[in-house]
Design goal:
Elements (H helix, E strand, L loop, with lengths): L19 E4 L4 E4 L5 E6 L10 H19 L3 E8 L4 H10 L3 H18 L7 E4 H17 L3 E4 L2 E4 L15 H10 L16 E5 L15 E3 L1 H12 L4 E7 L3 H16 L5 E7 L2 E3 L2 E2 L10 H6 L4 H9 L7 E2 L2 H18 L8 H12 L4 H17 L7 H13 L4
Parallel strand pairs: 3-4, 3-10, 4-5, 10-11, 12-14
Antiparallel strand pairs: 1-2, 6-7, 7-8, 8-9, 12-13
Helix pairs in contact: 4-6, 6-7, 9-10, 10-12, 11-12, 11-13
Length: 409
Amino acid sequence: MYAWPASEVPALPGSGRDLRIHDTATGGPITLDPGPVARIYVCGITPYDATHLGHAATYNAFDLVQRVWLDTKRQVHYVQNVTDVDDPLLERAERDGQDWTELAERETALFREDMTALRMLPPQHYIGAVEAIPGIVPLVERLRDCGAAYELDGDIYYSVESDPAFGKVSGLDAATMRQLFAERGGDPERPGKKNPLDPMLWLAAREGEPSWDGGSLGRGRPGWHIECVAIALDHLGMGFDVQGGGSDLAFPHHEMGASHAQTVTGEYPFAQAYVHAGMVALHGEKMSKSKGNLVFVSALRRDGVDPVAIRLALLAHHYRDNWEWTDAVLEEAVERLARWRSAVSRPDGPPADAVVEEIREALANDLDAPAALEAVDRWAAVQESEGGTDEGAPGLVSRAVDALLGVAL
């Protein structure tokens, strides 16, 4: 599967800062220390509706992570999946009378268009669950063969009790885990399971549903969590730098994925940091497909909204915060974009070296994008009221917000 085209990232004078970021597993900030090649895995969409602003906010956060690393002169190895076969996708296709593969391809194509418009840096590897099946099957077989998985009516489950570190990613108690597991695709009430929290590794073929040859597992399709594990291990290996996604993925998805990987490899940890973005709400409730309270990037673009303004609206909120999308949020972003473009359109301006360093400092401090925006706002305000004589300043500010914030002026 292919991703989307990469926008050019301008080179800036000097060098960026190492990233200090909030790690869900430790509950506090850690300073990331990647090698020359920083490794990041971000969980992708299930393509039956794309791309709402909750998606966009999440991918914007991890786009900033990449940009901070690139500014430190590191290379970035970024991997993202597409869950192109799963119950929600099949249910939507059946509801709408569509072929599930056509639905997945259409929504994935729309997602690519939105990511391109928002100038999100693409992954080097963009992998669908279906194409990952040849790598998933051996992992499930290894888990079964080492006693960490068991069969139940033809389905294969992972035993969470096989991993002593289970629970360390989310830090949740058993009762909360069970509640969230039921809400987020799990089946804690299924009779015969060894532990209510045991997740599905391989779903045996059901009549009328797609299935693939699973070798000794029989025909079927993979569970959600093992999909990302297989892709991450194949392209990044154990101990990669950041596992990212929305805060609703901390449990069960990232908890289960880490447990699968640690059990099958005998190594720890799966990722050095687990980083989670907050949720975006509309009309007082978290945007969700089940509630239908979604604002789509493609719809905003069709209405003539500049994608750069959409990106600025996302950047105005700290990535870990939960926040609400309103008309006022977008209006503020449109006005900010106009001020910034006016400021950099002049032939000279106030010195900008300090602005670049302020943006770098803000982003290195747990991706504090709002503080970075405020630094540019201050420079633009001085430009508007007093101007300046530095001929290179407007160009430097323009390159800095492009390189570090993904905002093209």
